[in-house]
Amino acid sequence: MAMIKANDQQIELSDGAPIRDACEELGVLFGCREGLCGTCMIDILEGEDNLSELTEEEVAMDRDREHRLACQTKIKKGTVTINFDKF
Fold it and tell me: Rounded to the nearest 5°, which phi and psi values hold at 21?
């Protein structure tokens, strides 16, 4: 099982799962869910090697391994700790 952590909370996911739903449950805001709006930008504090490669949408928004779009990212395994702005 994989895990996403943020703000003293954690959500378990299956290995290889998209992190979108877990991030939404943790409080990340979403707009389009398709990598177009950039609303779901997150910072990866720990575990970036446990995430999928950057998508074309993330590259187009100048994201990198430590700054991702939650709607585009999958967790391969292990634990990932994120940070995000709450509005």
Answer: -65, -40
Fold assignment, 2-83: Ubiquitin-like (UB roll) (3.10.20)
Residue range 14-68, pLDDT digits in tens: 999 999 999 999 999 999 999 999 999 999 999 999 999 999 999 999 999 999 9
Alpha helices in 1-87 (DSSP H): 20-26, 56-60
